[in-house]
TrEMBL record:
InterPro entries associated with the record: AB_hydrolase_fold (IPR029058), RBBP9/YdeN (IPR010662)
Name of the molecule in the record: Alpha/beta hydrolase
GO molecular function: hydrolase activity
Pfam families, sorted: Ser_hydrolase
Annotated coiled-coil segments of the chain: none
Length: 192
């Protein structure tokens, strides 16, 4: 069962590095909500921060309703960089659901994501919620907490949820979708 609250928004699904496969919660949620739009990057394997930010900006500018960003991993970093670089477009975003943000500054970050470091430190200009895990190999819980404080995001930390992806057992993830709907119900609806 889906919540009618999602109909208020132009929902943009913002995958991370290598995209989200068909069993990933982002893909499963999008399958259940055909009106949702997936951000399509030109190169999923060797991401360019400038290109990924530009793609997100174009999609937000084309939206006809307040935008809800549903981001995962490097998609969270893309969202933060975009908001810092495009405050005029960011005004069109009502909220961002930022799941398992990738810490592109960690010592063992893959070279492919190095162009997304350093991460912006400024508060995001829209409501945001970070969903992190206490054992995410790509972002320590303490780092997720620091990002939440810097970005002005609410923070939820899941226990032993890994990178909150298919490998960690997050396929349909109905609890996540319900939590998103509940959180949205607490927010005022922004105007595009």
């Amino acid at each position: 069962m889906t919540s009618p609250i999602f109909e208020r928004y132009h929902v943009l699904v913002v995958p991370g590095w290598q995209n989200s496969g068909p069993e990933h919660w982002q893909s499963r949620w999008q399958d259940a909500h055909p009106a949702w739009q997936r951000l399509q990057q030109a190169d999923w394997l060797t991401p360019s921060r400038a290109d990924w930010v530009a793609t997100l900006d174009a999609a937000v500018r084309a939206a006809d309703r307040p935008v809800l960003l549903v981001a995962h991993s490097l998609g969270c970093a893309t969202t933060a960089h975009w908001a810092a670089q495009h405050p005029d477009s960011a005004a069109r975003v009502a909220a961002a659901w930022l799941v398992a943000p990738a810490d592109t500054e960690r010592a063992d970050a893959p070279p492919a994501v190095a162009g997304f470091a350093p991460l912006p430190r400024a508060p995001l200009p829209f409501a945001s919620q970070i969903i992190a895990s206490d054992n995410d190999p790509y972002c320590a819980a303490a780092r997720a907490d620091a990002l939440a404080r810097q970005w002005g995001s609410a923070l939820t930390v899941l226990h032993a949820a890994g990178h909150i992806n298919t490998d960690a057992g997050f396929g349909p993830w109905p609890e996540g979708l319900a939590a998103l709907a509940d959180w949205l119900a607490t927010l005022p609806l922004a105007q595009p």
